[in-house]
Amino acid sequence: xxxxxxxxxxxxxxxxxxxxxxxxxxxxxxxxxxxxxxxxxxxxxxxxxxxxxxxxxxxxxxxxxxxxxxxxxxxxxxxxxxxxxxxxxxxxxxxxxxxxxxxxxxxxxxxxxxxxxxxxxxxxxxxxxxxxxxxxxxxxxxxxxxxxxxxxxxxxxxxxxxxxxxxxxxxxxxxxxxxxxxxxxxxxxxxxxxxxxxxxxxxxxxxxx
Length: 209
Prior knowledge:
Distance between the termini: 21 Å
Shape: elongated
Radius of gyration: 30 Å
Structural class: alpha+beta
Strand content: 15-25%
Mean pLDDT: 77
Number of domains: 2
Largest sheet: 5 strands, antiparallel
Low-confidence stretches: 1-7, 94-98
Strand order of the largest sheet: 3-2-1-4-5
Order of helices and strands: HHEEEHEEH
């Protein structure tokens, strides 16, 4: 049923209403539709490229951590001094309003900064281990702070190819599967958007029948 069925417009307004209806039902020409579709395709291409780049960056970072975790056991050792040791607290919902009864997601991370010297050059780092430190437990984070208090001399492992790359606890105890899965998802979404851009922005969708 027409939204104005049963309504009778005054004569002085009938022409304006007719023009309004004409403009609302006017279809794009083939040329206009192609230009509009091209703009949408370019936008989809930019989005897909962004997703692919982000996914590749996250994937490379995750794979490098796995590589460093596996090889770090064979890295040379040196002495370091802990310069800072504390628990960092982050609130994932700090800028949003939560409903009554809902709990905010709070995570705790140990921050252990240390300084060391290799061939007379001083380096600073805060890498505890290349494996993900599981959970968001404050107790787990404090365990590292108590284990590596400020001022303590510790043994760290560093890369002979890049001495600024170092770690306190070498090896790979677990793999951050969530990060790898997320990176692959971004890449796949990017390629899917890029492949479907012509279908998603077909000029025929915008041309009047």
